[in-house]
Amino acid sequence: MNLLSSWRRRAAGFWRLFRRSRQGLVGLGILSVFILVALVGPELVGRVDRAGTFDQMLDPSGGHIFGTDRAGRDLFKVWVHGTRISIAVGIIASLITMVIGAAVGIVSGFIGGRVDTALTALSNFFYVLPTLVLAIVLATILGPSLLNVIMVIAITSWPGTALIIRSQTLSIKERMFVDRARAYGAGNVRLMTRHVLPNVFGLILANTTLTIAAAIFLETTLSFLGVGDKNTFSWGRVLEESFAAGALTLGKWAWFVPPGLGVVLVVLAFTLVGGAFDEILDPRLRAREAGRAEEPPEAVAGAVVGT
Amino acid sequence: MALLEIRDLVVHFRIRGGVVRAVEGISFDVETGEAVGLVGESGCGKTTTVLAINRLLPPNGRIVSGSIRLDGEELTALRRGAFRRKRWKEMSVIFQGAMNSLNPVLRVGDQVREPILLHEPGVTRREANRRVSELFELVGINPARKKQYPHEFSGGMRQRVMIAMALANRPRLVFGDEPTTALDVMVQAQILELLERLRREFGLAMVLITHDLSVVAETCERAVVMYAGQLVETGPMELLHDRPLHPYTLRLMRSVPDVEGPRDLGAGIPGQPPDLAAPPSGCRFHPRCDHAVAACLAAFPPGRSFGTGHRVACHAVSDEGRLRAPSELPLLSGAAVVLAAEESGAELAMLDHPDDPPGVEGAA
Amino acid sequence: MIELHGVRVHFPLRQGLFEAFRGRPRGAVRAVDGVDLRVGASEVVALVGESGCGKTTTGRALVRLAPITAGRVVLDGEDVTNLGGAALRAYRRRVQIIFQDPYESLNPKQTVHDIVAEPLEVHGLARGAEREERVGRALEDAGLRPAGAYRGRYPHELSGGQRQRVAIAAAMVLEPAFVVADEPVSMLDVSIRTGILKVMLDLRESRGVGYVFITHDLSLAWLIADRIAVMYLGTIVEEGPAAQLVASPAHPYTQALLSVMPSPDPKRRRRRTILAGETPDASRIPPGCRFHPRCPLAFERCRTEEPPFFEVGPGQRAACWLVESGRALPVVGTTAAAGTAAAPPAATAEP
Predict the structure, then answer these.
(1) Which chains touch A (3 or more CB pairs under 8 A)?
(2) Chain centroid to CA A289: how far?
(3) Is the omega angle on the peptide bond into residue C146 within 30 degrees of 0, that is, cis?
(4) C-contacting chains (≥3 CB pairs under 8 Å)
(5) What is the ipTM for the molecules in this complex?
(6) d(Cα C44, Cα C204) in Å, to the nearest integer?
(7) Pick from B166, B157, B283, B160: nearest CA to B229
(8) CA distance linking residue B186 with residue B93, whole number of Å
């Protein structure tokens, strides 16, 4: 079979299941809106410029639907640019997390022994590092930048993924098909990439979706605390500025509600989608799909899938 | 009047987008003190039948029609409470996986005692404990082990506990759902021995559900053979062994190795049991049958009796009670495909049965 | 020819800190405890025994999946016990295994084609169209015809019998000389077993494959094997030509096993010798003959001295003191009184 058609088939099957999950669809709907904004928004609204004194701290109006900030910047444009940054940081940080976490998890679970002991100890070390303290320390040493934020998030998130993937790997390693592959001569690298990885991939996917949500949240927190990059707008930085300017007491809701709501909605959406993935990957649910688990076991065993 | 009378029992399961027709109109009797084997392969509906009789079907399962009479009393008409008072007292079940059917955190003695306290309110705890000790002795476990937990028992010993539990209320009818399947031959022999002894001692009637014809031959006087929810043949075990009439029974008998029979592989049955959500029309065995004729597609044949309690439902059986040879029959072309597959030992699936009208057997 | 010479597989028991401190010697589960076996080309040798007798571990040791503690595995005169790397891979091309559970032994994420093609890929054999062809041939040899109808399917779309055929195709695609078949049909319905066994035996005819057929079912072993080796608690207790061993078993354990084997013919109710208790733990093997605590015929010598093999017929040998000078007395009808702890006294069935 060629790889493409097999993947297409798998994807089609996945979508068939996903479509059934209401929460997943809601999450996906919200996400599409934000991702569209992040992809094309900044180019559509154009650059964010400082403006004259008379444009500062304006209330929402036809010209500036969210009003302006202390530097006279249009808060809607700021929000659109912030959307891109926040989501990008979340996704990039999560991808790094996923790669490191999955690699460490699979290797440590599969190889076992001393390698496992060492890697698990390493994971545990990073797992218990206080995220905020690490972020503040790193930002102080390296200077605040987006890259640092991404690194901090990745460094503190990968152990969680690694531990989950490791435990799943441990159970897959015991399955007979691994022994069978070993018996025809497959080596460890092949076993890990061709047999373990495809079987933990769903879990990795679900986990990554959830990590993205956490990463966006963390980025917001870090920026809000002033550890983030001062030269770019992210939702967190907008929140921080609005807070510093006393937007809350001034009642300038249009300054902090949109980014706040953005964070809440995107995190919620990723969580919903991740939850749906998780559910689809639940073997019991999948069995129901594949072979009607609601039947008595006797009948299931006899069920034949025809052409 | 038989102790247990099943008439035209139909059981369905609701599933997403359809109905699984698990049991499709079966009838049989169990006499007092008799041992009857309910035989068939996976998906034949034997376990479902027993669950239905005992009202233990999962929530999506339902008795669609039919009658179940215990001592002449219609069980399907009983209200829930009245039925629950009967179950275990009059008839009980020895379940398949003894490990899953015992609660791991309760002492085995307490688990055996529970049905006694539940169904016989007049019995004191002391009296119940004494009866548990008796039961343990009866099934060959040292009563001192009452205080132990299931994990401290071996597989065979756990099965003995299950038997003690099934006998706790001195029922007259016991169902054994593959009671020895997971056990080694030696332990299986121990358990079958025990069941045989209990049956004789207490005049118990027993329905043994199993896929293993040899086990039935060792323990039961009569057998009921099921295929894909339909009852194909029933009769005394000796007749079923020496002169099976239904092609399925015949094949099944020939598939069982017998060290005192011919040393050849036998025929087997090409293909596999159907998907019961979209079963074949008529006789559900026809796509795998080398005796299949046109009538098999149209309708499931009525059961015909030949001699002492021997009843068979097959179009290929002649009126004088003989299974006609394929050469004497106007075979469907599918039957030839079955024969060819049998020769080579190849798989039959993936090919739709060439004689089926389109859409009747189409699978998911 | 593939041979096992005194193969032992011991798994060390986990030891608590306390025991270690007290200097107690570390125990071991002696899963396989000195097995000699020989399988020739196109020969079927059945390893028969109850669960825990070490038959599966013996099979796994043969394909080098279980660690061999002592003894040697020899393939065509070459000692392969300690092979590694490329040499081990080459060995694995020649000796394959089929597992019991067709639901567990196929990777659910691979298509049938990928499952059967992977062994070729691992060994860099046959590329492109040639590989396609070999995969197709393997599938059809395993009875999955036409192969095209199965290639793109995933294991969950197949029945148990079809899956086991896929596993057979994947084992056979490398054209091995020997195959260890570990209870290949025990999880399948009786009516579909025949087709699978037929396919396996056909491959022996056409390619000269030799099989080690592991099963708990003595009657199945009798049906398809040339020779049968009966195992008990890590060792072979009796070995011989299949029909001969079943017709005249010499070891009391084999005799008992045969006597309790249910027969499909209800007219034939034999006298059964039901042994008490269950197979003991392989970490506590009794001294002397390891069968003596359950043996209805055990006498003093059995408790202290382990019996060697004695020739009891042409090509048949049994490890029992009773056959030291020829045939044993049949145990049929006797009662096995000496049981393991807490077991009920064994009873003997009526004739």
Answers:
(1) B, C
(2) 27
(3) yes
(4) A, B
(5) 0.85
(6) 9
(7) B283
(8) 23
* Average of per-residue pLDDT across C95-112: 90
Q: CB of B284 within 8 Å of any CB in chain A?
A: no
Place C329 in a pLDDT band, splitting at 50, 70 and 90.
Answer: low
Contact A276/A18 with Cβ under 8 angstroms?
yes
**Closest Cβ opposite residue B272 in set C192, C199, C279:** C192
- Amino acid at site C51: S
Contacts of residue B198, Cβ cutoff 8 Å, sequence gap at least 6: B138, B139, B163, B167, B204
Look at A190 and C159 and tell me if their CB atoms are within 8 Å. no
Comparing CA positions, the residue from C229, C321, C233, C241 lying closest to residue C275 is: C233
Paired strand residues for B3: none
Residues in chain A: 307
Please, where are the H alpha helices in B203-270? Answer: 213-219, 237-242, 247-255
Question: Taking Cα atoms as reference points, which of C3, C14, C57 lies closest to residue C33?
Answer: C57
Residues of B in contact with A303 (CB under 8 A): 43, 275-277
Question: Distance between CA atoms of B3 and B15, rounded to whole angstroms?
Answer: 34
Asked if C104 and A198 come within 8 Å (Cβ–Cβ), the reply is no
| pLDDT one-digit tens code per residue, B157-173 | 888 898 898 888 889 99
> Residue C244 is encoded by which pair of tokens?
């001969």
For the cut 50, the answer to whether the pLDDT of residue A274 exceeds it is: yes
d(CA B67, CA B70): 10
Is there a contact between C118 and A181 if contact means CB atoms under 8 Å apart?
yes
Q: Which of residues 310-339 of C touch A (CB under 8 A)?
A: none
Reported as type and span, the H/E element at residue C338 is none
In percent, the amount of chain C with pLDDT more than 70 equals 88
Say yes or no for a CB contact (<8 Å) between A304 and B277.
no
CB distance B297 to B332 below 8 Å: yes
